[in-house]
């Protein structure tokens, strides 16, 4: 029998870990998992977090960076967004059927949507739902987002890299024009979308399927801690070189570094400060450490203050 799971948590680390835990238990019958996150940017498995987002903006606004297990592009999520996941054994996967569930749900809300060639659903030519899939060891996961009333200003700020120059071997997100469903019909709510998804899923897979609620009490995902580690979030970024400039208390500072497996291989620090500053000692100390631009600039400031 198919299952419907709804998360009662809004912690993005928990929800991504819960999704993966349900994926590990994939069966021949399809399961639907619905969830919502507090403000977060979720990166694809092979993406460079520095190329895809403004990490200083994320820290300043309390947006959490999360790296998922599936591929695809970076996506901003907040409580104005509904996440869906279809989970099943690979041999029984039917992406067209999953897509049909979503389209039926949207249609029941009075809107018509079309599928684009980039794994997106569009309303009036604008993207409101992006999709990705993940296959591992005979298990299949198809997931995505539905934008209901996402904060578009935060979305823009979070997904606009602050880096002046960056060359990367990671997978770049495709920037698209986006729209909230509530912009098309102000009566559409998060609850309405969730109920529409459940009704459409039941219509496809069984009218009397029960809803099972998951939370941190009844589910302890194995990857919960892993997803929160800096090594997973930043260390999984592919090899890249970076140049970033920030204004510190003593002047403008430009940081140039080469990063591999998330760790600094080479680094040079420049400044237009009127003071004569030599950063060789700090540059050497930071070699082979995990790269975090916020932390590096904090150490530069601290280094200068001690001189």
TrEMBL record:
It catalyses: L-lysyl-[lipoyl-carrier protein] + (R)-lipoate + ATP = N(6)-[(R)-lipoyl]-L-lysyl-[lipoyl-carrier protein] + AMP + diphosphate + H(+). The keyword ATP-binding applies. PANTHER family: LIPOATE-PROTEIN LIGASE, LIPOYLTRANSFERASE 1, MITOCHONDRIAL. GO terms for biological process: protein lipoylation. It is an enzyme of class 6 (ligase). Residues 26-209 form the BPL/LPL catalytic domain. Pathway: Protein modification; protein lipoylation via exogenous pathway; protein N(6)-(lipoyl)lysine from lipoate: step 1/2; Protein modification; protein lipoylation via exogenous pathway; protein N(6)-(lipoyl)lysine from lipoate: step 2/2. It comes from the Bacteria. Pfam families: Lip_prot_lig_C, LplA-B_cat. GO terms for molecular function: ATP binding; lipoate-protein ligase activity; lipoyltransferase activity. Keywords: ATP-binding, Ligase, Nucleotide-binding. This is lipoate--protein ligase. One of its GO terms (cellular component) is cytoplasm. CDD domains: LplA (cd16443). Its EC number is 6.3.1.20.
